[in-house]
Design brief:
By secondary structure, this protein is mainly beta. Helices cover 7% and strands 35% of the residues. A 3-stranded antiparallel sheet has the order 1-9-12.
Length: 164
Amino acid sequence: VSTQSTGNTSNGELVFDSGDLVIPPMEANTIFITTALQNTRQTRGVCLSDQKCSNDTDCSTKVTNVGKLLPSCNVTAGYCLITGWCPLENEKSPKLEMKGFENMTIFLRSSVQYISWEIVKSDPAVPIWGRNLFYLKDMIDSASAKECYDGCIISIDINWNCVL
């Protein structure tokens, strides 16, 4: 199975096309479409970590998944300092929701190979609505997924019936 998407979406300020939203562009048997962004403008530096403290002895020098903790407590804020990408990403900060992603089109190509009989069959290379070309909205609706803003996985089963 191979997939291709077309269309665009917007977060109110910027317009994104399928090249921006489909990551990675070619992925085996699947497609990933971005429906929301968490945008944190970061630079390398020293900032507050997520480790709470009341004095310097509460802070250890260890490497974490976001940087290296420093043996220094910002007593006013109550957090240890860290050197790394600052500010740290905050999952509670507002997401930039994409509008219009449900109007993107998905083109599916599938093929089957029967090695014993040397038969190879595939879908037409031309998009045909309802057969191999769909609106993402229609796929979401048929999967009974009301919202995909926080992400959703849609599985597609393709059955090849062959009479040999």
